[in-house]
Each structure stands twice: as C-alpha cells, then as structure tokens.
Amino acid sequence: MKLLVIDDADAIRARLAEVLGEIGGLDVSSCDPKTGGVIKLILEQKPDVIVIDIHLPGGALDLERTIKSDPHPPVVIALSAPSSLQYRAACHRAGAEFFFDKVLEQERLVEAVTGLQKELAG
Q1: Which residues contact 58 (CB under 8 A, 6 or more apart)?
Q2: Which of 21, 38, 66, 115 is the Cys-Cys partner for 28 at CB 3.0 to 4.6 Å?
C-alpha cells in the first residue's frame, strides 16, 4: 500500500514517516507542501492513503477537497495539533475519512493505517 505524508514541519513529517514506515508492507513517502507541486506529486504517485496536516499553509481543507474530487481518490487521514471538534467536523466535510490529534493519537493513526492496509489487500 502506498502512503503519502504531507506536513510542513520537517520534524513531524519525518517522525510520521518513521512511525508509519514501521508497519510492514507500506511504501511510505513524504512531501513538504512549502515546496509546491503537491497535487502533481499525488497524481504521479497515486497513493492509496494520504496523511495530511490540516494546518498547511495555503489551506489543507481546499487540498482535501481537490484530492477527493478525483474519481478514485485515496483515503485521507487528517491530523491536527491541537485538535478540536470544529477541526474534526471541517475535515470530515472536506472528505477526510479519519481525523486524529497528531500528538495524542499516534497509536490510533497506526491502527487505522494497519486496518486500511488489511482492507485494501483483502
């Protein structure tokens, strides 16, 4: 399963890629949205799952909507720190299937990705 991590914080992006890379059978890559070309990268890589920080410069919710407008969109997992019910609701409205606090719910993120991997393989 291909997974793409999109976060503008280098340390967090690296940590998420490391944690998720420990799940066997994943092809994990990451992207710094400040460099541009996120949509192009998504179209080229065709990830099955995208993990995205909702506090991206330029607007993560718009990016989520763009991703979900594809006829065969990847699963979107939105992350936030801090998280709130408003962020969670906005992300779900934009099309995210999952929402986690990236500091407090990393274990739940790993569980969700592991479950998606089994679902997509089956």
Answers
A1: 33
A2: 21
Q: Which CATH number fits domain 2-117: 3.40.50.2300, 1.10.10.350, 3.20.20.140, 3.40.50.10470?
A: 3.40.50.2300
pLDDT of residue 36: 78
Sequence-distant (≥ 6) Cβ neighbours of residue 15 within 8 angstroms: none
Q: Give per-residue pLDDT as tens, 36-64.
A: 788 889 989 999 999 999 988 777 888 88
**Residues paired with residue 29 on neighbouring β-strands, in sequence order:** 4
CB 105 within 8 A of CB 99: no
Residue 26 confidence class, pLDDT cut points 50, 70, 90: very high
Quick one: pLDDT at residue 53? 92
**59: phi > 0 → left, psi -120 to 50 → alpha, else beta; which?**
left
